[in-house]
Design goal:
The complex is a heterodimer. Helix content of chain A is 80%, strand content 0%. Chain A is mainly alpha-helical. Chain A has two domains: 112 residues; 64 residues, no CATH class. Chain A is elongated. Chain A starts with a helix and ends with a helix. The relative contact order of chain A is 0.08. Chain B is mainly β. Chain B folds into two domains: 81 residues, Immunoglobulin-like (Sandwich); 621 residues, Beta Barrel (Maltoporin, Chain A). Chain B has six helices and 40 strands. In chain B, the strands form six sheets. Chain B has a 22-stranded antiparallel beta barrel. The N and C termini of chain B lie far apart (73 Å). Classes of the chains: A mainly alpha, B mainly beta.
């Protein structure tokens, strides 16, 4: 009888633990699905807030903060309100710092760092390129070094080049090989888990389609 | 069964926990407006929501009992409140408090134009200064396209709101700069000594400036030097006026850098091609050297040194105004060194320390000679010829130290206080046919203490209260002045400001060095009243400012001579200036075109120097307007800049001493023709965007006064008053062509990114 009690008790305790991690995975999976299907800027902001809540509750997981920061950056790009961009970028940076502290030298985090710098720069390109231009480049280089298999730094670089006028060495001609390289990497890229970053392939295809 | 009881309780509680409670409500700001996009959450749970466009939020939770509800949004403070969840639907409305924010908070702008890299939207950026067509990369020439400054072509300096050039002082990294401009040449305005590329921030205050600065009756030009460079680089340049080369080395850890630059200017080739009005018997030749180092002393600390050296010579000959047989030959040799060391550091969480020390030593050797038609010296003993041949060596030294401590208060409020000490020594040695090596000296131990507080009553209402105490040993007098300004936000992007202040300035050193009699000189004094309205958005800037300035104790000169000889001086002059200024900048209406328009109306009179009574001074025009246009054409990698400046004529006078009346009288007067200047410049950047090259090339071509409009800056009168000669620019147009290269720096990436 006593034995049975302890067996049952331990089942309850373990299942509680499993329930906790299941709850995290479930919340993350739902969150990522919302993030992937976000259509409006407000959806993206809601996604950022949801991930931030998970991050704050868990405290030791880097992925929620990573996604929160990423959603915040994409929200800012979707909003495209230059008077607010700096504030949005600062918020994204604050979230990313928490992810960075939990998971240093991560290729995915470096990608978001580069996106945040791009956001700051676009507020006033003429006067800010000196400050942010090198940061954008350095972070993309870091991302490539930290995980050579990661397609996202190539996607971001290709995207930047695509948006640069041809006269400045941008445009489709220079962007295409980089985007194709990104696509190749997407074909073979295996995310570390079901909730690990695995986005961007669709955007690469879309960007490439504009170059045909 | 008994041991299973706790298990059952556990299971039950688990089930009970799954029951969901609905929490909903509205999020509003302090003014009752809904806040969209606010994040609401239960602390340490996944549960929460984001508010919609009406500020409504809604979420379900399985949590029970005492919980903490968090709410926040960008620009607002985090709001925490304890709630008890019992299972019943909860309705909780939340009011968020605005976070004081430099981006949205009101800023005190009365009187000042700021150009900086910082994130705040400013009226001008440093790059604007370099690309203003008429400026030729001279800081003060670019500032002259802003409202408040006069178009004075016959002497250097900024003449602001009815003030003389001496009433504007220049500060680099907090400390006063003596000899900011190259040494004066009669009737020719000189450029500023320093390259605009060494500054990252510029504040041009046309009045009402902070208590941290003093001894400028009208205006302060406050320059902040650059920090660490982005990369190591070497540069060379060649132009129609000279050569330059430089090197900047950034330490591997990116925490320190040093650099040197050298500039050689020689106008021989230029003067051979472009004919000059004066006869340049000694072609202007300049040697400039610069050295700098910058060290990050900690995460928040920065130590900067900038050193400058200049040696230049020139000589020019013009017909003498009193005799068609004679000429005046003017020679100048200048030697100048300047060093500035500054340190800023954050002390603890709330304190900031700024320290600056600088030293400058300037020597001018000036010779003026009366010559005949064969350029042979002539000596004559009669007035006014007897004093036309002279030699003077003047040396000025300034050593100073300044310390400012700042303490952050709540929100954006802060207090600043500190002091400065300046030691001026001046020495003139004068020789003419009556005096040989007559030496005069002047010395001043100048001390000041100051304090000011920025008080943000709300995000929308701010006040700056300041006070300044000064003592000059030369005058042996002290003064205490108040400075007050207020700013109130009147809309999302608009704000109104008011400023009031008293400004003192000691009489120029010349009055002590020329042997004039004086008795009990006072500080010259100006009182400013300024009202300003400003609306700034990303694409447009509108600024309207009105002011009234009252002068007292201006320097008056007395004598009986018409050859400019002064017997005594006193501080008994007075005057006033009032005006309205407009500034409009538009970056959007015309595609890829950025333009600004400025207009100044000035009404001023003063009684100073030998003026018989209060009259409009000869450096003041009633109406001044500028249009500056910039357009970058991506296809040909070229930027086109144009500027047009207009000013109504300025008065000129022949003030003569009347023996019968026993005082100075206006013997003749008039107004010059209107001033028109259309200028163009083109910057061609062929390597822009070429990722394969590490070199960066810029070609610059500029032409001042393209139309060749007649420009008359005033008139010089002969001793007998029978003849007047116009003061004209040295040539009708000014041309500049240059090519500048920098090596080892891949800036193309940066430039690409700047055009994303």
């Amino acid at each position: 009888m006593k034995q049975l009690f302890f067996i049952l008790l331990s089942i309850v305790i373990v299942s509680q633990g499993i329930a906790q991690s299941e709850k995290f995975t479930k919340a993350m999976t739902t969150g990522i699905a919302t993030f992937d299907s976000a259509k409006t800027a407000d959806d993206m902001l809601a996604s950022a807030a949801a991930f931030e809540r998970i991050g704050d509750a868990e405290k030791t997981q880097w992925l929620p903060y990573y996604y929160a920061s990423l959603s915040q950056v994409i929200y800012a790009f979707m909003k495209n309100d230059m008077s607010q961009s700096d504030a949005y970028a600062n918020k994204a940076e604050e979230l990313l710092k928490k992810a960075d502290a939990l998971q240093p030298n991560n290729s995915e985090i470096s990608c978001v760092k580069s996106m945040i710098a791009t956001l700051h720069m676009l507020v006033n390109p003429q006067n800010r390129w000196q400050e942010y231009g090198p940061v954008i480049q350095t972070e993309l280089d870091n991302a490539k070094k930290q995980d050579p298999a990661n397609p996202r730094p190539y996607y971001l670089q290709g995207q930047n080049l695509r948006n640069t006028p041809e006269q400045f060495g941008g445009g489709c001609t220079t962007a295409k090989p980089v985007l194709e390289e990104a696509l190749k990497k997407y074909e073979t890229f295996k995310p570390a888990s079901a909730i690990a970053p695995n986005w961007g392939k669709g955007q690469v295809e879309k960007t490439l389609a504009t170059c045909k | 069964m008994l041991p299973l009881l706790p298990l059952l309780i556990l299971l039950l509680s688990f089930l009970a926990g799954s029951a969901q409670t609905v929490v909903s409500g509205k999020v509003k700001d302090g003014k009752g407006r809904p806040v969209q996009g606010a994040s609401i959450s239960l602390k340490d749970t996944y549960d929460g929501a984001t508010s919609d466009t009406l500020g409504d939020y809604h979420f379900k939770t399985t949590e029970k009992g005492e919980q903490v509800l968090l709410a926040t949004s960008i620009g607002f403070k985090l709001q925490e409140q304890k709630i008890t969840i019992s299972g019943a639907t909860m309705h909780i409305d939340i009011v968020l408090k605005q976070e004081p924010n430099e981006l949205t908070a009101v800023t005190i702008t009365a009187g000042s134009f700021e150009a900086s890299d910082t994130k705040r939207t400013t009226v001008l950026n440093p790059i604007d200064i370099v690309t203003t067509a008429s400026a030729n990369a001279d800081i003060t020439s670019a500032i002259k396209t802003l409202p408040g400054a006069q178009q004075v072509g016959e002497s250097e300096g900024l003449f602001v709101r009815g003030g003389t050039a001496q009433e504007t002082k220049v500060f680099i990294d907090g400390t006063l700069v003596n000899n900011f401009f190259f040494s004066s040449v009669p009737d020719i305005a000189q450029r500023g000594r320093f390259s605009p590329f060494i500054f990252k921030g510029t504040v041009f205050s046309a009045g009402g400036y902070s208590a941290l600065y003093g001894q400028a009756l009208s205006s302060a030009l406050i320059l902040e030097s650059v920090d660490l460079p982005d990369q190591s680089s070497a540069s060379v340049g060649i132009s129609t006026v000279g050569l330059n080369g430089g090197f900047q080395k950034l330490a591997k850890k990116k925490n320190a850098s040093w650099g040197v630059n050298y500039n050689y200017t020689n106008l021989a080739a230029y003067f051979a091609v472009v004919k000059q009005r004066p006869d340049n018997f000694k072609i202007p030749e300049f040697h400039n050297g610069e050295a700098n180092f910058r060290i990050k002393t900690s995460k928040t600390g920065m130590l900067k040194f900038y050193g400058y050296f200049n040696y230049n010579r020139l000589g020019l000959r013009r017909p003498d105004i009193d005799s068609i047989e004679l000429k005046n030959a003017f020679k100048l040799t200048n030697f100048n060194v300047y060093g500035n060391l500054s340190w800023k550091e954050k002390l603890g969480k709330k304190w900031h320390l700024y320290m600056g020390a600088s030293y400058s030593n300037n020597t001018d050797k000036i010779g003026n000679e009366l010559q005949d038609q064969h350029n042979v010296p002539v000596s004559m003993n009669m007035e006014p010829y007897d004093t036309k041949t002279f030699y003077v060596r003047s040396n000025g030294e300034l050593a100073q130290i300044k310390t400012v401590l700042e303490r952050r208060l709540y929100g954006l409020s802060a207090v600043r206080f500190g002091g400065e000490y300046m030691y001026f020594t001046d020495r003139n040695t004068y020789t003419n046919q009556y005096v040989t090596n007559g030496t005069t000296t002047a010395e001043d131990h100048f001390k000041a203490a100051f304090a000011e507080a920025d008080i943000y009553l709300t995000n929308d209402l701010a006040a700056k209260f300041g006070g300044r105490f000064e003592h000059s040993s030369q005058l042996d007098k002290a003064n205490v002045v108040p400075r007050i300004s207020l700013a109130y936000k009147v809309g999302n992007k608009a704000q109104a400001s008011l400023a009031y202040g008293i400004f003192y300035q000691k009489p120029e050193k010349d009055y002590y060095l020329r042997g004039y009699a004086y008795n009990n000189l006072l500080y010259t004094k100006a009182t400013h009243y300024i009202a300003n309205y400003q609306r700034v958005s990303r694409d447009y800037t509108l600024r309207i400012e009105g002011y009234y300035k009252k002068y007292a104790n201006l320097v008056k000169t007395y004598g009986t001579s018409n050859a400019g000889i002064i017997d005594s001086v006193a501080t008994s002059g007075y005057g006033e200036a009032k005006g309205i200024e407009l500034f409009w900048r538009d970056r959007k209406t015309l595609k890829n075109v950025d333009y600004w328009i400025s207009y100044s109306y000035l009404d001023t009179k003063r009684d100073y120097l030998n003026y018989p009574y209060a009259i409009q001074p000869n450096f003041a025009a009633n109406h001044t307007a500028s249009l500056v246009v910039k357009k970058f054409v991506t296809k040909i990698k070229t930027q086109f800049n144009g500027s047009y400046t207009f000013a109504t004529g300025r008065p000129y006078y022949n003030i003569k001493y009347s023996n019968t009346a026993g005082k100075y009288q206006i013997a003749d007067q008039g107004k010059t023709i209107t001033y028109n200047n259309l200028s163009f410049s083109v910057n061609y950047l062929p390597t822009i965007g070429n990722a394969k090259t590490k070199n960066f090339i810029v070609w610059v071509l500029s032409v001042n006064n393209v139309l060749g409009s007649d420009q008359v800056f005033g008139y010089n009168y002969s001793y007998n008053g029978m003849r007047k000669d116009p003061v004209l620019p040295t040539a009708r147009r000014f041309y500049f062509l240059g090519c500048f290269l920098s090596f080892g720096v891949d800036r193309s990436d940066d430039v690409i990114n700047s055009n994303l």
